[in-house]
Amino acid sequence: MKTLAILIFVFPIVLALTKNDMEFGIEYFLYRHVKYICLLTCWDNKFRINQFTKYSSKNFIGVSIVFLENFNLRKLGSCSTTHMGDVGILVDSDCPISKDVLYYASENSLFDSSRKWLLIESNMTDYNNTLSAETIGRFNDLNMNVNADLFVAKVTDNGYEMYEIFNYGKIQGGELIINNLGVWSDGQGFNEDLNGYMYYRRWNFQQLSMRMVVVMTSSQKAFEPAWLLDPRQTPGLATILKTSGMILKEVAELHNFRFNYTVMDRWIGDYTVNDSKTVASTSLYYKLQDVTPVLRFENAFVLSKVDLVHPPLTSIETRYYYRIPTYGPGKFENQFLRPLSSGAWLCVVLISVMCGCLLLLTAKLERRQAAGQYAFFSVLASICQQFFEDNNESGTGNASSARKLIVIVTGASCLLVYNYYTSSVVSWLLSGPPPSINTLEELLDSPLELIFEDVGYARSWLKSPSYFFNRRNEKIENLLRQKKVLNKRNIDVLTNLERGIAMVKAGGYAFHTEVDSANRLISQKFTQTELCELGSIDSMKKSLLYVTVQKNSPFKEFLNWSLKRFNERGIVSVVQRRTRSSQVECEGSSPRALTLGGAAPAFILLVAGYVLALAIMMVERMAEKRNLQILRSMLK
């Protein structure tokens, strides 16, 4: 739960908080829903402390006390932190160290929306409705931002004049803003809603310059802000940056602020000072930049360094695009044994054995010579859609009806199986996808050269061994990086989108790029025949991308609020449709060219048949030549 902190500061002209001041402070705390107060004081009068705690306890507000005489930052941190609810911080300005507390809060970014500050200025000799120059001067020196929730209550005849004090961005060059919000009078309360959302009162940022880091290749001489608004492809600038950039530009125009752009070439790197001027996430971590349109990361470690703004404005999906190779042996595909399932093949074997046994039995009854040889080759011939006749006229001389019936049944069964088999193989050749590379492992073993679009995430992948497109493919991505990228000294692996798609069209390359950008250009450059020869492999799975800011950024809540409003009104979806492209696909189908690897099983079966026939012939010749009765009887 966020911690609310409220500070009551009283200037040294007053010796201490009066009874009215304490009652006003308690009433203010109640109005702002604060239930815990950290009192930093050097009062030596226990009566005052007891009086304040008594007022607090009557309103069910808890109080913790730290004496500033023994002040240290650890005590302040423990006193002002709780997990039970909101915290208010009350500082006794009579203590000399009270000014140091304000500067400590400024240096440690404690002026934010999670801490609500109230300062009481009690100058009984001056009742004009303005703040003193001393008060304004103190706040001019403090590091305050648009999310500061700080009020100064000036004592007047009518009550307490309330002033809201903040800065749209001290570091960004903003000026101190002081708004008079009316009078808090005794018994009537305040005439405006202090608990109203602050950004409705802080709509106009008065031309504040917010620092934006854009990830783009350094080959461009200078960055043009108009590139972010152009839906067409810009070399070196990812389309996903344009989607977020267009929406952020609309937010800036609506709230009257602008961006100062800084170009860097990587999204993710090491969080060292040396990388703070070249890596987007590192520059945010060291607070050199305020915002980046998108930041792609693959693990939660980055979230400990930066903050994300919701909702997500775009998404990213990348693939390796290639033209299916028409040279080389191709991938080994044993499709000639796959048309039938294992169970179907088992049935074919069992039927063949049964028919062979019945033919053997009938041949024995007919007293045919070499009955076993006749039964075996008759079934084998039927399977191969052939007919076997041994020209043996011995035996009874008459073929039995049983043998004829068995031969007919065997032939019909084999004919049906053959039709199913050939139909499956032919349909696979005609309607199946072309022989393609479907996995990163197959891409690693392929002859294709890898090239990458020259954008921030590709540079992060090439330069950071711990950065991956997909953490699940960590092992194979490391192999791709080492074997097909880093050892190719004579090939420039980074190129622009148009040149990369042209190299894919020429063949021999696998190009890594974003899907939307690739689809838009492929639809313009490829014919239908070439589209049917185009293949792709998943690299980055589709993932959402967020606007990213500094950790605990003063602009995070404002951007969250603005982008949610834009999302509710449909502005985000309109911009997304403007930059998104449709999927390109091959219309219809074309017969696939059967590669040597695909036809290899058929040739292997042919060679095996020739070898078997040659072996049988050699055995027969040997038996005939050497008059081996045993072999003769086995062959018969």
Could you characterize what this model shows?
It contains 21 helices and 17 strands. The chain has 636 residues and is an alpha/beta fold. Among the domains are: 7-201, Response regulator (Rossmann fold), CATH 3.40.50.2300; 342-431; 596-635, no CATH class. Mean pLDDT is 80; it is low at 1-5 and 10-15.
Keywords:
41% helix; 636 residues; Rossmann fold; alpha/beta; disordered N terminus; 5-stranded mixed β-sheet; 6-stranded mixed β-sheet; 21 helices; 19% strand
Put simply, the count of helices is: 21
| CATH class group of the domain at 7-201 | Alpha Beta
Count of strand segments: 17
What level of helicity do the residues show?
40-55%
- CATH architecture term of the domain at 7-201: 3-Layer(aba) Sandwich
In one word, what is the shape? elongated
How does the helix and strand content classify structurally?
alpha/beta
CATH topology of the domain at 7-201: Rossmann fold
Distance between the termini: 93 Å
User: Residue ranges: pLDDT <50 for 5 or more in a row?
Assistant: 1-5, 10-15
- Which sequence of strands runs across the widest sheet? 12-17-13-16-14-15
- Mean pLDDT over the residues: 80
- The CATH homology group name of the domain at 7-201: Response regulator
Radius of gyration: 41 Å
Strand content: 15-25%
Short description:
With 636 residues, the chain is α/β, with parallel strands linked by helices. Among the domains are: 7-201, Response regulator (Rossmann fold), CATH 3.40.50; 342-431; 596-635, no CATH class. Helix content is 41%, strand content 19%.
